[in-house]
Structure formats: structure tokens, C-alpha cells
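task queued by scheduler; priority normal; single chain, no ligands, no partner chains; default sampling; output format set to C-alpha cells
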Amino acid sequence: ERTSQQTSELETEREAHRRARERATERETTVSKLHETLASIGRAASVFPLTEIMSSEAGAATESTAVTSADEGADSVSEARDGAPLSADPPEVQQAAPTVEAEAETNAVVEEDAAIEVRSAVEPRKPADTEALLAFVAPSPGAEPPPIFRRWRDQQVARKLAPLDIMNTDAFFVRHIEAAVNLPASDMLEVLSLGGDDRDFEFRIARMLRKQGHTGFRIHFPQRDPEHADQCLRKAAGAGIDQELAPFDTSVWTEAALPDHFHVIVGDGALARSAQVEPVVDALEQAARNGSQVALADRIGHGGSRTANEMGERIWRLMPERYKHNHLSDQIDAEYATSPEPHHTADVLALLRGRFAFEDFASFGHLVDRFIGPEIGPNFDPEDERDRRFIEQIANLDEAKLDSGALQPLQMVSRLAPREDEDA
């Protein structure tokens, strides 16, 4: 009986070794195919017609990012090991080091912000059309972006705006609220949030402002539901910032319940959530001309081009099944190009450029959008090194294609100032 047991254990061990050898062979084959496929993507992209690179005149100078070549981006995508992406030598996210020119631009922005503060203190303020601004904004985005989205976006913001000492998306919003804090001691700094893509957006901003020593501000934000408001205020009370947060119900609010004027208006994904974009942009323009500072992080483009689908599909075919699980439909997505697109986002950037000048502008992302959204994104753990590297490498490939004009960006952060060539 003992001999029989030993024989069984030996066979089990041999079977395990055999399977290990098979997995090793499969990994080598996958790596070879992946490098070959992505290298071909890099070569193929150069023959696509170049399109206009979407960048603003005011913001283009801030995008001082080290350009990764197409082949370098292609060669860096990871191996699939035991159903998880793996890279032997992944590139780190490169942050642009401030150059002499970038430092000069930063100083110019600081001086301009100071000038805005002086003008704001002496110019009379007219009431903003709050009703028009909020009437078309949906406070609830539905499914929240997965954690991998925030990790990726923060890295892209740091990549583009590091010379301005903006190292993540929350810091971007805090910077522009800080630009309006030099008010008379008797004045309360009133901030309107158009909502965030996650439930803690306003809480994080208020907490960061307090940590940096700011007081005398209030952030008004639309509550998604009574539970959202209660949850936010409980967390705020625990952090000592409950007086700085003021939720309101968009279904019953009146103009008397909100200030006549907001010094700063912020929004994370507000345009993408809006039932109609143009009325919101109209109201934002009016508010900006009345003295409000406007800072947005939003979706500005529409995916689904043949170029993107062909490139994405080649990567998709080599991904393990577990990364293709759609958390909204609870099915396996067989193709890259199945993610639904917001119906109106294709015209957002053109609409904004016709009304505003862009400051502290950064745009990014295209192919990676499919991998970090609410459908597929939960499959990638930002705390898992292999998953994180895979997303970073797709982002590097994106950057090369955006720089070449083969793809157009789908996301932006920017401060929006009224255009000077229009009548106020």
C-alpha cells in the first residue's frame, strides 16, 4: 500500500512537472507572438493618415513629455504568465523633468494667476446662471471607474503637468481652488462641484485643502442619493471638514439655497455625464466671464476608429480570458471594440475650444480606455505589479501614437478661461 502511495505521489509530481514545462512553452510562445504583434502595430501605425494633433495653443507648451518611439512602446508590452500579464523589464512612468523653458512657463502661469486674483478682488461679480449650469448635469455617473482608472489618470496628469508641480488629478483641482483663496477675511470661498466620477471626489478635495492650511471655503456638490450625502458628511465629520462640504439635492434645489456666485467651478466627468453638453458649456462660459474659475477633468473624444480597433484587437486576441470578463454584462467580451461610447463626446473638445482658452492643459489616452473602464477595468488590480505594468505599457504605446497623430486623445484636464477675442 505504501509503495502504491509513493508511486501515485511520483506520478502526480511528474504530471505537475509536465504541466509546468507546457506552461513555460506556452509563455515563450505568447511572448514571441506578443512582441511580433505589437511590433507590427508600431510599423503599421506609420502608414495611417496623420490627423491634427488635438492640443490647445495655451496648453500645448505644458505637455513636455519624453516621447516614446513607436517601436519602444510596442516592445514593452508584457508577457502572459499563468493568466496574468508580466513584463521582465517594464519601463517606469516617465515624468517630465522641468527644463529652463518649462520653469519660465511655470513662472508665467504663477504671475498670471496672481494677476487674476487681483482682478477678482476689485472687479464686480455678476450672478452666475446656476440653474442653467445644473439643469443638464447628471449627478450620478452610474458605474464608478475602477481603481485602475484613477491610478492611470493620475500618472498621465503627473507625466504632463509635473513642471507645474501638479502630480495627480486631485492636486490639479486643488491648485485652481487655491488660486482664488486670497479673498477678504469676511468672504467665504464658494466652490461649486458638478460632481465626480467617484463618491469621494469632493471629500478628497476638501481634505487636501485643509491639509494645506486653507480654511474659509465651502464646496457645494450634487448628492447622488440621500445615502451618498450622509456617507460623505459622516466621513467629513470624522476628518473635521464637515463645515466645508454642502451637499444639495438637484431635484428640489432652489437658487436661494445656493450662493449667487461661485468663485471656482470644478467637475470630474461632468460633460460626459450631461444629458446635453452645449447648454452646460454655455453656462460655464457665462460663469467664467462673470469671474468664476473653471477647472474640468473630462472625456473629450470618441473612440472606435478603424485604426484604434485594429491595434486594440491585436492586443485583445493575446490576452488571457480572465481579463476579458465584462463586469457590467457578466460575460466574456470576444472583441476589443465592444465598449459603448458616450453619444456626444466626439464634439466636446471642439465645442470647448470655440468658447475658452485652455490653461494647464493635458490630454491623453486612447487604446488604454478599453482596459481601464468600468467593464474590463476591475480585472486589473492597481496594487498588482504585473497588472500595473501592463496598463503602463499600453499607456506608453498610446503616447507614441498620440504624438504621431495616428490616434486622438480621449481624456483631458484643463482650466478654462474665457477667450479674449470674444465680447464679454
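post-processing summary
- The CA atoms of residues 184 and 262 lie 15 Å apart.
- The two ends are 94 Å apart (CA to CA).
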